[in-house]
Structures are given as C-alpha cells and as structure tokens.
Amino acid sequence: PMVVVAPAAAPQPPPIEKVLPLVGDADAKDSFGYPTAFVDRVALQQMLRERRYAALTAALEAAQARFEDDWHYEFWPHDSVEAFTADPTLEPLFNEWVASAPTSFAPLAARGHWLCDLGLEARGSKFAIDTPDENFDKMHTLHERGVVDLQRALQMRPRAISVARVLVVLG
Questions:
Q1: Taking each helix axis from N to C terminus, what angle separates 41-49 and 91-100, rounded to the nearest 10 degrees?
Q2: Residue 23, SS3?
Q3: Which of 9, 1, 67 is nearest to 39 (CA)?
Q4: What is d(CA 139, CA 117) in angstroms, rounded to the nearest whole number?
Q5: Residue ranges of the alpha helices (H) in the chain?
Q6: What is the spatial distance between Cα 162 and Cα 117, in angstroms, rounded to a whole number?
Q7: Cα distance between residue 20 and residue 27, in whole Å
C-alpha cells in the first residue's frame, strides 16, 4: 500500500510581544480595530546600546510584518524606526548593526531615519535667514546619507511604510 506523508506544518512565529517590545496588551484593540499597545521605544534604544542586533532586527521586522498582515498596525513600524534619538554617538552602533544584518531592511531603515533626524538637528530651528550656511550643508550631507540607506531599505522591503514616509517627507 501507498503511504501518504502530510507536509510538515510551517513553523509558527513567536507571539509578537516576545519579539517586539510593547507597552500594553498586544491583542487589545480599540473600537476602530487599532491596537491599543504601542512600541516601547526606550526598550529598542536599549537593545541598540546593548548591541543586541539580531533581536533588534527581529523586532523591526516583526513590526513591519504585522502591518503587512493588518493595516491597523501601521503605527508599529513607524514607532520602531523612529525610536532612535538624534544622538551622534550612536553612529558606530548603527554601522555595526547594518553590517550584522546585510539582508535585512530594518537596520538600514533605522539608520536612514536616524541620519535624517541628525540632519534636522544640524539645521536647527531658526528661520533660514538666521541659520548659517554650514548648518544647511551639514543637514544636506546627513540627509543624502540617510536617503541612500532608506532607498536600499525600500528596495529590500517595498512595503516598508515607515521608510516610504520619511522619503516622502524629505521630498
């Protein structure tokens, strides 16, 4: 007699809250279907500072995947990529993270957004007439570097909404 073997079931990903640090109940939703939990930005920053690059990559990829499964989770990828402050001392950590995950969009998206934030910080908040040309030059240089990362990230993950948003804002 012929023996039929059923294909192995695909492994299930771990629960989102085991991968992406959240504040609140990962399954709770408001009356419009949006999650009430939000991304713990401080925890993501700590992961970067502790050089937990694999976990950080998994967290940002999980946020994007949840959005791709259900658009109500659109804020999770944004909050994940935007978690990192415009602190110039983070550059070596971002560079290590990018090198550690060459096939993932996540570190490129985060570093690209961070570089664009550094650019805005360099420009300052004064009126253009009161802003030195050097500030604009530094901003443009940082934005150019950030856009390269963001474009690479978007090529790797075309539905990366957080990446597309930054590129649209920059024009």
A1: 80
A2: strand
A3: 67
A4: 9
A5: 16-19, 41-49, 53-69, 75-81, 91-100, 106-123, 133-156, 161-170
A6: 14
A7: 13
Single out the residue of 83, 86, 66, 84 nearest to residue 74, CA to CA: 66
pTM of the model: 0.89
**pLDDT string in tens for the chain (171-residue length):** 677 766 666 666 677 888 899 999 999 999 999 999 999 999 999 999 999 999 999 999 999 999 999 999 999 999 999 999 889 999 999 999 999 999 999 999 999 999 999 999 999 999 999 999 999 999 999 999 999 999 999 999 999 999 999 999 888
User: Do the Cβ atoms of 162 and 128 come closer than 8 Å?
Assistant: no
DSSP assignment letter at 33: S
* Burial of 132 per CB tally in 10 Å (0-12, 13-18, 19+): exposed
Tokens for 147, please give them: 């856009």
Q: Which residues pair with 39 in a beta bridge?
A: 22
> Which residue is associated with the tokens 């009126």?
127
Cβ count near 92 (within 10 Å): 9
Type and span of the H or E element at 39: strand 38-39
- Side-chain-side CA neighbours of 55 within 13 Å: the count stands at 15
